[in-house]
């Protein structure tokens, strides 16, 4: 059947897991701080996961350029085609913009998974403030996109009963 390639499926679900974890970390910093040695540890993990998402998204775009995307929606439904393309493009944009702005606004070095230090970028305070403003505001756009995206996927599966969600699930799952 029509589905994404295995690397694309693996990258999609790994990214989804990492993004949701990364949203939970700052909001649940009191809770997670108990296991990570306080807020410093929580943000070390937040930044590390965020940069992992950036790397995985770049990789994913390369894989997508090679494998393309399967035709999961009816080809005659132009509106659905365009809406899905726009939604996915926006998701990709935020998967790049969230980690990039995070990287831009930090004044202190990033301690990548407690292993390697990445020095802060030499930027003006104004640029940092702008990047921070973006990071803190765009999170709400990201939430709306993720919720809408997941709701539409479930609607396809349970209401339309078509193969859209199965196209992003491993073959063994059905
Ligand atoms: C998938 C990537 C990322 C997502 C979805 C994300 C999301 C978020 C969210 C939801 C918050 C909490 C905002 C609030 O308290 O209102 C936050 C805060 C923060 N993020 Fe990220 N982030 C990502 C990547 C990064 C990266 C790569 C860095 C740095 C290298 C970073 C640095 C920070 C910092 C320092 C804060 C605290 C800001 C403050 O309140 O002072 N983030 N991020
Ligand atoms: C943080 C969470 C998520 C992010 C960032 C995300 C991101 C994306 C992106 C960028 C695509 C486009 C893939 C491409 O064509 O290259 C996609 C496709 C897809 N996602 Fe997600 N996703 C998330 C969660 C979910 C969830 C929870 C579901 C299911 C309930 C889901 C189901 C799907 C399906 C079925 C497709 C294929 C749609 C199609 O090609 O028409 N995603 N996702």
TrEMBL record:
TM spans (from-to): 42-62, 82-105, 140-159
High-level lineage: Bacteria, Pseudomonadati, Pseudomonadota, Gammaproteobacteria, Pseudomonadales
Protein name (database record): Cytochrome b
Cofactor(s) of this protein: heme b
Gene3D superfamilies, sorted: Transmembrane di-heme cytochromes, Chain C
UniProt similarity note: Belongs to the cytochrome b561 family.
Swiss-Prot/TrEMBL keywords: Cell membrane, Electron transport, Heme, Iron, Membrane, Metal-binding, Transmembrane, Transmembrane helix, Transport
Record InterPro entries: Cyt_b561_bac/Ni-Hgenase (IPR011577), Cytochrome_b561_oxidase (IPR052168), Di-haem_cyt_TM (IPR016174)
The Cytochrome b561 bacterial/Ni-hydrogenase domain, residue ranges: 3-170
GO-annotated biological processes: respiratory electron transport chain
Topology of the protein relative to the lipid bilayer: Multi-pass membrane protein
Assigned GO CC terms: plasma membrane
Cellular compartment(s): Cell membrane
A GO term for molecular function: metal ion binding
């Amino acid at each position: 059947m029509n589905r994404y390639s295995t690397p694309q499926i693996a990258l999609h679900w790994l990214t989804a897991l990492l993004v949701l974890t990364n949203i939970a970390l700052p909001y649940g910093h009191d809770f997670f701080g108990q296991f990570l040695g306080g807020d410093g540890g929580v943000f070390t993990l937040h930044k590390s996961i965020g940069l992992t998402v950036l790397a995985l998204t770049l990789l994913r775009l390369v894989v997508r350029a090679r494998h393309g995307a399967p035709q999961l929606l009816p080809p005659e439904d132009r509106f659905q085609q365009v809406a899905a393309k726009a939604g996915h493009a926006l998701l990709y944009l935020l998967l790049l913009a969230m980690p990039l702005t995070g990287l831009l606004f930090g004044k202190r070095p990033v301690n990548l998974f407690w292993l390697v230090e990445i020095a802060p970028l030499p930027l003006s305070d104004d640029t940092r403030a702008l990047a921070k403003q973006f990071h803190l505001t765009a999170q709400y756009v990201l939430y709306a996109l993720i919720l809408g995206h997941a709701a539409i996927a479930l609607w396809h599966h349970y209401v339309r009963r078509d193969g859209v969600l199965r196209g992003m699930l491993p073959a063994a799952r059905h």
